[in-house]
UniProtKB/TrEMBL annotation:
Keywords: Signal. This is DUF302 domain-containing protein. It comes from Thalassococcus arenae. The lineage of its organism: Bacteria, Pseudomonadati, Pseudomonadota, Alphaproteobacteria, Rhodobacterales. Residues 1-19 form the signal peptide. Pfam families: DUF302.
């Protein structure tokens, strides 16, 4: 049992190290950019499952954190095929975009779906849904960055 946990811990840490994070600058502040992202997601017919305000969470325990909001969203038409190929894709889905402020600049960051799901058996680099997810993330974050 300990061996399984050690192997799982190694695999989890390896996936974090190999993650390809895509970051773009945004013209507005965090709240406005997150609002624009949510509107773009909903306008594209996807579902927003949650919006996590990390800054508010930090403030609730009297800790300082630059503004940061995480939008969790997806479309079952894209995510379900990935999970049919390997149910463990559900650990990385739905998609997530972090909108945050660093050094006075607002950014949107997300993990590239192809890199995120690359280590899962049954999900090949040629899977059409990976390109569709990547394209959607690029389009949605681009719309939110410059509304």
């Amino acid at each position: 049992m300990k061996t399984r946990f050690a192997a799982l811990a190694f695999l989890a840490s390896a996936s974090l190290v190999s993650a390809e994070i895509i970051t773009i600058e945004a013209a507005g502040d965090v709240a406005g950019t997150a609002d624009a992202l949510q509107a773009a997601v909903e306008g594209a017919g996807a579902t927003v499952f949650a919006r996590v305000d990390h800054g508010a969470g930090a403030a609730s325990v009297d800790m300082a954190l630059a503004p940061a909001q995480l939008l969790i969203f997806g479309n079952p038409k894209l995510g379900t095929p990935a999970m049919q190929d390997n149910i463990l894709a559900g650990l990385d889905l739905p998609l997530r975009v972090l909108v945050y402020e660093k050094d006075g600049q607002t950014y949107l960051s997300y993990e590239d779906p192809a890199a995120m799901l690359a280590g899962l058996e049954g999900i090949g680099a040629e899977a059409g849904y990976l390109a569709t997810m990547s394209g959607a993330l690029s389009k949605l974050t681009g719309a939110a960055a410059n509304p």
